[in-house]
Design brief:
Strands 1, 2, 3, 4, 5 and 6 form a six-stranded mixed β-sheet that branches. The chain has a four-stranded antiparallel β-sheet with strand order 8-9-7-10, with helices on one face. Helix 1 packs parallel to helix 2 and helix 8 packs across helix 9. The radius of gyration is 19 Å and the shape is globular. It has two domains: 157 residues, Ribosomal Protein S5, domain 2 (2-Layer Sandwich), CATH 3.30.230.10; 114 residues, GHMP kinase, C-terminal domain (Alpha-Beta Plaits, 2-Layer Sandwich), CATH 3.30.70. Helix content is 32%, strand content 26%. The longest helix has 16 residues. By secondary structure, it is an alpha+beta fold.
Length: 297
């Protein structure tokens, strides 16, 4: 049987600042953040089959349960939304740490939507795919676009933003998995709202060369997560003591990252951490809908 196949990267993200603005009428929290796609990546291979079934496998032992996996949920939602009766085999090769705040699962789901849109010949627009993605999770529409975006609402309302450029970024994952749901339940809005004098919206332009802007980028989950996991605060302090321009936790944790001007400084910090924790030197990237559209099948 001849099968068409797509094998593509599924990139991670970091959050440059994360402000929690309040609780919405739907019970979710209103947030404001800059999402930056980075080139740490999983790989996803999708084969078009003659069956109408979605088959899923993964090289990570904790992701063997197919029905609850976001990749499978994304494929089935695409089938349900479009009425298509085709199937596919999905194989996921994991590199992005899980429970790290790097958006690996969201990225995987978005890539499945992008690839099946291509393989199944659905020709859905980026707006249509984003609408489907938002039904699966708040971060997933971002990965349909890729690049850099200011995210508001639940994180699903996006406007393209200026990239931080080609700066090397060190990402340290200390092996702690932080539940996003747990982190949100710990939010004390009385504490966070009183500090809302500075948010992303108070700046006319995103300017990473503006020291005041960089200093304003604060992840409000850090106070909550660092209290529970002091090691994360220690790692951030160690990165700040290097030649990092900026250091922060990504999302609700637990990955800690530092942005550097020089590759040598980033490599030095990686060598400091890599014997104890998975540590990556990565860079910003812009890959999403257009990246898949240019693939020939």
């Amino acid at each position: 049987m001849c099968m068409q196949t797509i094998k593509v990267p599924s990139y991670a993200k970091i959050n440059l600042g994360l402000f929690i603005l309040g609780v919405r009428d739907d019970g979710f929290h209103e947030i404001e953040t800059i999402l930056q796609q980075i080139d740490i990546k999983d790989e996803i291979e999708i084969k078009l089959t003659n069956s109408s079934k979605i088959d899923f496998s993964c090289d990570h032992p904790d992701l063997q349960e197919a029905d609850s996996n976001l990749c499978v949920r994304a494929a089935n939602l695409l089938k349900q939304t479009t009425g298509i009766q085709k199937g596919a085999q999905i194989f996921l090769s994991k590199t992005i740490p899980m429970g790290a705040g790097l958006g690996g699962g969201s990225s995987n789901a978005a890539v499945v939507l992008l690839c099946l849109n291509k393989l199944w010949g659905l020709n859905l627009s980026v707006q249509e795919l984003r609408a489907i993605a938002s039904r699966l999770g708040a971060d997933i529409p971002f990965f349909i676009l890729g690049g850099t975006a200011v995210a508001t609402g639940r994180g699903n309302l996006l406007r393209p933003a200026k990239s931080i450029g080609d700066q090397p970024i060190v990402v340290v994952f200390p092996g702690i998995s932080v539940s996003t749901q747990w982190a949100y339940t710990q939010v004390n809005l009385n504490l966070t709202i009183k500090e809302k004098n500075t948010t992303l919206a108070s700046f006319n332009d995103i300017d990473y060369d503006n020291k005041d802007f960089i200093k304003s980028l604060k992840n409000e989950f850090e106070e909550i997560v660092f209290a529970e996991y002091p090691l994360l605060e220690q790692i951030k302090k160690q990165i700040n003591q290097s030649k990092a321009i900026f250091a922060s936790m990504s999302g609700s944790g637990s990955a800690i990252f530092g942005i550097f001007e020089k590759e040598d400084d980033a490599l030095e910090v990686r060598s400091f951490f890599q014997n104890e924790y998975p540590t990556f030197v990565t860079r910003p990237i812009n890959w999403g809908y257009q990246g898949v559209e240019h693939i020939l099948v």
